[in-house]
Design brief:
alpha+beta
């Protein structure tokens, strides 16, 4: 059983939908890729969480690669997801 869709017919006097106003309207504006949207979401989440800022580029997106206990706290080796620069933080 096949489903058919009813075709819409427009007369010259009918209102034309916005999508038909400009033939190149879709190509004129930049449509974000899924990767760009995901990166923006991760950035917003990191800023909302407050994260530790990279001393090199200021990005708040980093990952912890090592953790070890030291006298009076804990040291973490972090790597920036943007510039790949490693640095250490100390938590008490």
């Amino acid at each position: 059983m096949s489903k058919t869709r009813k075709a819409e017919v427009y007369d010259e006097d009918d209102a034309v939908p916005d999508e038909f106003d400009a033939p190149n309207a879709a190509s004129a504006r930049h449509r974000k890729t899924l990767g760009e949207m995901a990166a923006e979401t991760r950035q917003r989440e990191a800023e909302a969480a407050g994260g530790v800022a990279c001393p090199s580029c200021g990005c708040r997106m980093s990952r912890v690669t090592e953790t070890w206990d030291v006298a009076g706290g804990r040291r973490r080796k972090r790597v920036c997801r943007h510039c790949q620069r490693p640095w250490c933080t100390t938590e008490s």
